[in-house]
Specification:
Blueprint (H helix, E strand, L loop, with lengths): L7 H20 L4 H19 L4 H8 L7 H8 L1 E5 L12 E8 L2 E8 L5 H6 L7 H16 L4 E7 L6 H5 L2 H12 L6 E10 H5 L6 E5 L3 E3 L3 H8 L6 H8 L3 H6 L5 E3 L10 H19 L4 H13 L12
Parallel strand pairs: 3-4, 4-5, 5-6, 5-7, 6-8
Antiparallel strand pairs: 1-2, 2-3
Helix pairs in contact: 1-2, 3-11, 4-13, 6-8, 10-11
Length: 321
């Protein structure tokens, strides 16, 4: 399995364990005791390394090429998925997946950014960076969900909206702004889940919700660390410093009440066990949808509005001296 520099000790030990298992199988030897010792060592190594991650290392994990995508989660935790395409204005944007599905026999509309599994698919899907037609498609499906009184689940995973000239010519900023505006008044529950990268307006275009959840090693930020470093220090190589000051990690976001809950990933990150992490995501989605649905739609919309009005609010004591 591919790993980042800080993961190399884990990757090397995983390869050693896999090699020992294959040797045991081919030679018909019982090496289970040795394998168990190495697996215990691996567990301790993961715990040690992942308990000391820097913000930049967390960003790296959120970008891991083997990390589960929106389609992976759909296939693992949902049933009867019906893909819907096109914005009815310009065309189809494969950077955003939309459709209807069932999760634990509960019908939902699901919308999510979709990255590729390899270079060719990433090019086809613009590395998960949506065009305006992607955001218009998303709103079209949200309106359908509202008509059929279905809750909406948004899976967020993008470094940002597509920055090309064509996207700007077709109204990129307006499409995102209209989505943010219109999501506030949708008369159905909306649940947002940051599954990887949550970058800038690209994330906010489908990121207004009654509750926002985030995976343990995902991030959510007004800008990418590289973009922040390029603007503040005129040097993109200062991305590690930018990652610290942006407060973009899941624990920081929970502390500042920008997300409601952190979803645990498998030991060593979601890329090491899609099934386990997907199971955690499913449980949390079901729980939160049930809790949101217990109140009236009027109260849901009012709480949604107030949730975002509170973001960034602070008080300052002014002395009478």
């Amino acid at each position: 399995m591919q790993g980042w520099d800080f993961e190399q000790p884990i990757v090397e030990l995983e390869k050693k364990i896999e090699g020992l298992k294959n040797f045991s199988l081919n030679k018909e030897l019982d090496l289970s005791a040795e394998v168990k010792k190495l697996e215990e060592k691996l567990l301790g190594l993961k715990k040690n390394i992942y308990s000391k991650l820097t913000p930049w290392q967390r960003v790296q994990i959120s970008r891991h090429p083997n990390r589960p995508t929106t389609l992976d989660y759909i296939n693992l935790i949902m049933e009867d998925f019906i893909l819907l395409s096109g914005d009815r204005f310009y065309g189809e944007d494969k950077a955003i997946i939309c459709g209807f599905a069932k999760i634990d026999n509960k019908k939902v509309a699901v919308i999510g950014h979709q990255k590729g599994k390899d270079t060719l698919e990433n090019i086809e899907r613009n590395f998960g960076c949506a065009h305006p037609e992607g955001y218009r498609k998303a709103m079209r499906i949200m309106r359908l969900a509202e008509r059929f009184k279905l809750p909406i689940v948004c899976l967020i995973d993008t470094p940002g909206a597509y920055p090309g000239i064509g996207a700007e010519e077709r109204g990129q900023s307006q499409a995102i702004a209209e989505n943010i505006r219109d999501m506030f008044s949708l008369k159905v529950p909306i649940l947002g889940v940051v599954i990887g990268e949550g970058g800038s307006g690209g994330a906010l275009g489908i990121g207004v919700g009654d509750r926002i959840l985030i995976l343990e090693y995902a991030y959510y930020s007004v800008i990418s660390p590289e973009g922040c470093a390029a603007i503040l220090w005129k040097d993109a190589s200062k991305r590690e410093e930018a990652s610290k000051v942006l407060k973009l990690t899941a624990p920081d976001l929970l502390k500042y009440k920008l997300v409601e809950e952190i979803i645990p990933e498998t030991k060593g990150g979601a890329h090491r066990n899609h099934q386990e992490t997907a199971g955690n995501v499913k449980k949390v989605i079901i729980k939160n949808l049930e809790e949101i649905s217990e109140v009236s739609i009027e109260e849901i919309i009012e709480k949604r509005y107030n949730r975002y009005r509170k973001i960034g609010v602070f008080t300052k004591n002014i002395s009478n001296k």
